[in-house]
Amino acid sequence: MEPKEAVLEIQDLRTGFTNQVKAVRGINFTLYASEIVGIVGESGCGKSVMAKSIMGILPRSGKVESGKILYKGINLLDLKEKEMRKVRGKDISLIFQDSLSALNPSFTIGYQVEEAIKEHNPHMKKQEIRRRALSLLQAVKLADPELCMKQYPHALSGGMRQRVVIAMALANDPDILIADEPTTALDVTIQAQILHLIKELKQSLDKSILFITHDLGIVAEICDRVVIMYGGIIVESGSVQDIFLRPAHPYTSALLQSLPGYQQEAAEELYFIPGSPPNLANDMPGCPFAPRCPYAMRLCEKSEPEQVFLAVDHSVKCFLH
Hints:
Blueprint: E1 6-17, E2 22-32, E3 36-40, H1 47-55, E4 62-71, E5 74-75, H2 81-87, E6 92-95, H3 99-102, H4 109-120, H5 126-139, H6 145-150, H7 158-169, E7 176-180, H8 188-205, E8 208-213, H9 216-222, E9 225-230, E10 233-239, H10 240-245, H11 250-257, H12 298-302, E11 307-311, E12 314-317
Parallel strand pairs: 3-8, 3-9, 6-7, 7-8
Antiparallel strand pairs: 1-2, 1-4, 4-5, 9-10, 10-12, 11-12
Helix pairs in contact: 4-5, 4-7, 5-7
């Protein structure tokens, strides 16, 4: 069996903000070629901050304090902004959560897709750029690409706008796609279509995808591996089979129990996790899930557990193991 090629390695990444919020607190994981990794966790656990740290688009109040983000062996944190602009959108692209905010209401769809192509292909002729833009809109299954090119974002439905944002992310044939909850604002039918499209694109274009979500149902459908985040750290990671069939961290188990129909009788009340997510502005010397964990010990509140490997690709941070 050939070793898998690592396209992105995150090493001890720590990102904070000037208001003392420590949003990402030392995470480590690897994205391999041609796989979809789901990043799962409650709102505020650090998922989107991690994605923005990778892309180098943190707000002014945010800063990567330490760690490495290695793209094919190159530490992106060592690059100057001018060098990072050559990577952003070309080698690594981000599909934003809110397509209406991601698109400029003052410009047509055609102008914005062509601009994404032109940014990294300054010598490409105008006709070539237009043909490329049309082919991208066709690739994301828009019914009438010619008409869509002439329209403004407000004239499109949410699902159509999300397809346009995906087309723009694919404009320069990137190695890595980061999808930041791209189906959150869509209804169930359109959500299913977008997920099917992402799976097709992964297979046909051979992309590596980081899929950020809080929906374990989506993860089960499209992902190869899963990373579970809580309180700015990774508490468990493994294959989809490991996470769903052999959850090792109490938080992972609680998330699964919160799914409708997961080991429940129809008449039972839906399970919920008691308590609230931690305030990331506070110091947390121990496991951040300890205040909500039914198995918490005194040790859990005093020190953060080390990463333990239960199998080759299945690891957990929990003193129970």
